[in-house]
Write a structure and sequence with these properties.
Oligomer: heterodimer
Helix content of chain A: 25-40%
Strand order of the largest sheet of chain A: 6-7-8-3-9-10
Order of helices and strands of chain A: EEEHEEHEHHHEHEHEEHEHEEHEH
Radius of gyration of chain A: 23 Å
Distance between the termini of chain A: 50 Å
Distance between the termini of chain B: 44 Å
Order of helices and strands of chain B: HHHHHHHHHHHH
Helix content of chain B: over 70%
CATH class of the largest domain in chain A: Alpha Beta
Strand content of chain B: under 5%
Largest interface: A-B, 45 and 42 residues
Number of strands of chain B: 0
Shape of chain B: elongated
Number of domains of chain B: 1
Chain lengths: 316, 279
């Protein structure tokens, strides 16, 4: 018999009134993976997070967490997942230690076991000297660490994080990722997070890219980037539409106008740049060649740019 | 072939097992701790009713005359209602704290924990009701001013009656607050429903006939106020009670049923997902 995956999502759709937030989504997350759910606002990633965290029951399709159905075996699932919410869930009037005590008791921990767990988590997250401080007095970065400690207190096998790096400065964000890496590597905890930042999602083992409730890409970040044929070229020009048509014909590429610029992919673009500029005298204001990013993957799959707000600009 | 070694390590070490009563206990404990850390809540919940009692007692005292209970001063008449008002205010604070728990994100952490909803309601209501009871009892010694003398058994009965009332009002507040995500919405509930419920419970005045008297009879809170009134006048001469007061047994039965029904309503509501969970 094989192990169940950490998460198995089968044909899940979800509606808020007439609006379809998730459309027939299926995907699997393996145990021990660091998995990112990424997409612009309104892509359905937050809905999926609510379904996975058992906050909202699924409307259709099935979701299994560590082999247990979230709808039928909710208490079992709840015991095995740790959840870090975007808005935070600490009681600001309670101290760090009191917050952890409260959380532990909600999960049935008490007495010496609970005290030992709390000390362990305080040490892991270097929070020992702040244990007596009220949560309200902590900085954003420290508060996020307490949230993590809180979510891990009952030793979940799956850690779910909603937009964990929102509001954190780059140094704190990097530290957060180190901790998540360590959790996955040393403790075998499966880490699933949502993010609207594509470059952040690129740190995960695998990425699911959502757009308008649909899964548009699912693979390791490198593998996704390799699906882009070569480098990504962006040209700033006065008349992008005409230029895009011309380039598509001349170079046999799929040049599109995204956000007022011409964009296309070309193998070994650095060698071709001089020829392109020479062939279009006076018409190229700026030209950029870059390694493909997940944003390029998003544009290639959806035909519109990744603006963090969701499908606004159309493909040419 | 199994790859079980991969899965086992963390599960084996996890001693977490859901314990609903422990969860309810910690939610209750949290209410008490938070209360102590917000001293202005103490002042508001005891101070305002006490002030009402003193001022209304002074203002209405000279003109107050209860037919059939000529010996009764307004200060004496209004005292049971004041205790119930303390309970009402405290339960309102608990309801508002539920809305804050939702808005600040704290509640989502409880909603995804392996805690049955009845334990969530029980913990929150128990915390609020204990606070209400304690604050009402703090005010009882003020009765010495008009010669109130209670033996231990009566104090115990009074505490039990106030506890039932506290549970009823806190659970009712919980039920109203559960679906709200702003405390402004609750203010409407408070001014248009909870406060009038108290006004028309025989706490402030005793209507003898007409629609007000009819409302007073169907208002479950009237029986709590009457129950407190009866207990406070234990051993006092006839004429200390307004006429037409429901019997002790009726007071206990109605107030007990009020508390039980409100708990059931609150638990049933809490089992449903709210719009707030989706936002």
């Amino acid at each position: 018999m094989t192990d169940p995956g950490a998460i198995e999502i089968q044909g899940v759709s979800h509606r808020y009134g007439p609006r379809l937030a998730l459309a027939d989504l299926s995907l699997t997350v393996a145990i021990g993976e660091r998995f990112a759910l990424v997409g612009p606002n309104g892509s359905g990633k937050s809905t999926l997070f609510r379904l996975l965290s058992t906050l909202v029951p699924p409307q259709s399709g099935t979701i299994k967490v560590l082999g247990h159905d979230v709808a039928r075996e909710t208490p079992v699932v709840r015991l095995q997942i740790g959840v870090v919410f975007q808005t935070g869930s600490l009681d600001r009037q309670l101290s760090v230690r009191e917050n952890l005590q409260h959380q532990g008791r909600l999960y049935g921990l008490r007495g010496a076991t609970l005290a030992a767990r709390i000390d362990e988590e305080l040490e892991r997250f270097a929070l020992g000297d702040r244990a007596g401080d009220r949560a309200a007095t902590l900085s954003g970065g420290l508060r996020r660490r307490v949230e993590l400690a809180k979510a891990l207190l009952h030793r979940p096998r799956l850690l779910l994080l909603d937009e964990p790096s929102t509001g954190l400065d780059p140094a704190v964000r990097a530290e957060l990722w180190e901790r998540l890496d360590e959790l996955a590597r040393a403790d075998g905890v499966t880490v699933v997070l949502t993010s609207h930042l594509l470059d952040e999602a690129a740190r995960a083992d695998r990425v699911a890219v959502l757009d308008a409730g649909r899964l548009v890409a699912l693979d390791a970040p490198d593998a996704l980037r390799r699906t882009i044929g070569g480098d990504s070229v962006t040209i700033e020009t006065d008349d992008p539409q005409t230029l895009a048509h011309e380039l598509s014909a001349r170079l046999a590429v799929d040049a599109r106008v995204i956000d007022g610029r011409v964009r296309f992919e070309l193998p070994d673009a650095h060698q071709a740049i001089a020829r392109i500029v020479e062939a279009l005298p006076g018409r190229v204001r700026a030209i950029t060649v870059a390694q493909p990013t997940l944003e390029d993957v998003f544009i290639a799959r959806t035909g519109h740019r990744y603006d963090g707000i969701g499908g606004a600009s159309e493909a040419a | 072939m199994s790859t079980a070694g991969h899965v086992s390590h963390r599960v084996a070490s996890s001693s977490a097992q859901p314990a609903p009563w422990l969860a309810a206990g910690t939610l209750c404990w949290r209410e008490l701790v938070r209360f102590v850390r917000q001293p202005n809540r103490v002042a508001a919940a005891i101070g305002q009713p006490a002030l009402f009692w003193i001022l209304f007692g002074a203002g209405f005292g000279p003109t107050f005359a209860m037919p059939g209970a000529e010996g009764l001063t307004y200060r004496e008449f209004f005292f049971p209602g004041t205790l119930v008002l303390v309970v009402l205010f405290t339960s309102i604070f608990t309801s508002i704290s539920l809305i804050e728990d939702r808005r600040e994100g704290f509640l989502q952490g409880v909603l995804v924990a392996p805690v049955p909803r009845w334990a969530l309601v029980t913990g929150k209501v128990a915390g609020g009701a204990l606070l209400a009871l304690l604050q009402a009892l703090v005010l009882v010694p003020a009765g010495w001013m008009f010669g109130l003398r209670l033996d231990a058994a009566t104090v115990a009965s009074l505490a039990l009656m106030l506890l039932l009332l506290s549970v009823a009002l806190t659970a009712m507040g919980f039920a109203f607050a559960w679906r709200l995500d702003s405390s402004q919405g609750f203010h409407a509930v408070m001014s248009l429903l909870l406060f009038p419920l108290w006004m028309l419970s025989g706490a402030f005045f005793a209507a003898q006939s007409g629609p007000l008297a009819w409302f007073q009879r169907v208002n479950p809170l009237s029986y709590g106020v009457a129950g407190v009134r009866r207990l406070l006048t234990t051993g006092m001469p006839e004429g200390s009670l307004p006429p037409g007061l429901p019997s002790s047994v009726t007071c206990w039965l109605v107030t007990g049923a009020f508390a039980a029904i409100m708990m059931v309503v609150a638990v049933r509501l809490a089992r449903r997902a709210t719009r707030g969970d989706l936002l």
